[in-house]
Write a structure and sequence with these properties.
The structure is a homodimer. By secondary structure, chain A is α+β, with helices and mostly antiparallel strands. Chain A has helices at residues 20-28, 112-119, 121-147, 150-165, 181-188, 192-204, 220-228; strands spanning 31-35, 40-42, 50-56, 59-64, 70-76, 81-82, 96-99, 103-109, 166-169, 172-175, 208-211, 214-217. The longest helix of chain A has 27 residues, at 121-147. The first copy, chain A, binds a DNA duplex through residues 149-150, 180-182, 190-194, 196-197, 199-200, 211-213. Chains A, B: GO terms for molecular function: DNA binding; DNA-binding transcription factor activity.
DNA sequence: GTCGCGTTTTGCGCTATCGCAAACTATCGA
DNA sequence: TCGATAGTTTGCGATAGCGCAAAACGCGAC
């Protein structure tokens, strides 16, 4: 039985309102595992045999169409759960999860969920909360895709990433996991070409500093301005 | 205390796994109300004082940007819940709900939710299920918006509406509540002009019959074909 | 039955963004 | 150290769909 230190996870929203004993009991059902950078954690369409809690690293959840196009559903940050197919009554994973950095996760067998929820009802309530929040964010994303131009969507996406996983530097905020132009394109519903053009433009305005799979927001406020303006043009 | 007939709602997923007594207790906390066609049920940004279960009619949930653009988040069909802001820990409604037809709803005060969940944990589990399903659908919608052209998105939207609220006629399936071109545009991320053009096209191909705020799918299968083809052109 | 208003249709020019192709460049492995 | 490889940049033509405007139409009200 893998032993997990409760103090590391006790403060997570998922476990809010649980006694240390309860938490201990829940963690006893989990095992932990390490996934190296770029390895698959589960594939879209596979049997949902487990659900996960990310401890370290970063995970990308992506959905693929029958014709092979992909979108990034979200990036999972440490402390967040993913692969909750069972909670929504799905037998198969609706997306593919990939470690974008060396990652450590806790893994519960899906079969343990009903029992856990029965013993600890607040687990269901807490999960409802996070799923609800994700639904909100999803709607916001749809709203953006419907009403905003690509440049604004990219701006919003980067700001969100910075908020979720930004590492503060003295000369800006760095998104602290590898992310490609293609990834950003798949988050915003455009092509890597367009993303590249936009970032190049921003770079020449001093708004960002972006290299290979690496992005630093030099002037977050400037990007906020970009994200919020409604339709007119910017600097030449 | 408004009396509600339990037999009408006992089979709903929300109440799955509850005893008749429990259901009775839950319903005792609700009151019912009628909203005439085109009346507002709640406004985006207002205090989330209640949550709702639709008994009859149809409700549109729409989200508005600061600049006034709208999108339709979903259409609520009888038997579905809406206005669940509290379940996700939001104090205000994230969208506006409007009755698109004369509608009857059950209304619970938001303040009753924590107590109900504590007494009947399966409420939380059931709600998690439906919210999770909506999250899925949301992701599918994002995927469509990212990868498909407008015509296919409109096709998918109509097929979904037909599935959810279609009335079977001998010459097709009618969407049985009033819906405008503008509404469809707001569901698919386009303009009413484009929707109008598309429907006109389909009408001349005999795929649909569409009048003022009314749509009949004459050839659902033909529309499925449209929805699924990936990129090439159609008939002239 | 007629009038008026909200909805729908349609034309037309415009442009944001795609899609392809080619050049370029960090990074990693031998 | 030098390629090989994957990611990025950039140019350029093509086009789907927008946006504006005007006309036609259907429905409900009186």
């Amino acid at each position: 039985m893998a032993k997990v230190d409760t103090s590391l996870v006790a403060h997570l929203p998922l476990f809010a309102g649980l006694t240390p004993e309860a938490l201990d009991e829940i963690l006893r059902e989990a095992r932990s595992a390490r996934y190296p950078k770029n390895s698959a954690i589960f594939e879209q369409g596979a049997d949902a045999q487990s659900f996960f809690l990310l401890l370290h690293g970063h995970v990308r959840a992506a959905k693929t169409t029958p014709t092979g196009e992909q979108i990034v559903v979200r990036y999972v940050a440490p402390g967040e759960t993913f692969g909750l197919a069972m909670a929504i009554g799905a037998a198969r994973y609706p997306a593919t999860a990939t470690a974008v950095d060396d990652s450590v996760v806790l893994i519960w067998p899906t079969s343990a969920w009903p029992r856990l929820v029965e013993r600890f009802p607040s687990l269901a309530a807490n999960t409802l909360q996070t799923v609800g929040t994700r639904l909100q964010e999803s709607h916001t994303r749809i709203l953006e895709m419907s009403t905003q131009q690509v440049e604004q969507r990219v701006a919003h996406a980067l700001l969100r990433l910075a908020k979720q996983s930004g590492k503060k530097l003295d000369h800006g905020i760095e998104i602290d996991f590898p992310i490609s132009r293609q990834d950003i394109a798949q988050m915003t519903g455009t092509t890597l070409h367009t993303v590249s053009r936009i970032l190049s433009g921003w770079e020449s305005q001093g708004l960002v500093e972006s290299g290979r799979q690496r992005i630093i927001l030099r002037d977050p406020h400037g990007i906020v301005v970009l994200a919020e303006r409604s339709a007119d043009s910017g600097a030449a």
